[in-house]
Write a structure and sequence with these properties.
5 strands, 186 residues, 3-stranded antiparallel beta sheet, 7 helices, mainly alpha, two-stranded antiparallel ribbon
Amino acid sequence: HAWQALAPGAVARCMRCDAVLDRGHRLDAQGLLALTLAAAVVFIIANMADLIDIRLGSARQNTTFPQAIAHAWGQGDVLIAVLATLTALVAPAVFIGLRLYLLAPLVVGRSAPGFAGCLRVLHVMSQWNTLEVLTVAALLALVRIAALADATPQAGLFALGALTLLMAGIESAGLHHLWRHAPQWP
């Protein structure tokens, strides 16, 4: 099989087993840029707003995700703090930043300097982006804490859920669409 660009909604199938090999993404560069900008805004909200409000008797605790990482570090859970920082803060930030860096020039018909290298880094970062795991873990923690105390989800948790959906939409396009929209080099 040789890869070729697919029209939006088209499906490429294996000639032997009829398995789906690729799908044409319905969004163009402008649509993907809009999704990526929305993901950037929601990422900031998810990291600045409180995730959960826990009340046990007269005690009350609110925390953001960076504060939870700092607390884990302070409690001696260094490995957990480092892994959470890399997979839930650094990787998504680099993923979103690189997407913005590559998509903004594509929308105006140019390619960003270092285009191919950025695509390679983007491919690696997408493997380390585990926001969906973090979202499920946060929801499970909320359910378990609710049995012990009053736990109320806050704006940060809703933003985390929205960010997970946005990132899934962005990643569904893959990286081939960036090559397809890139101007041809002489």
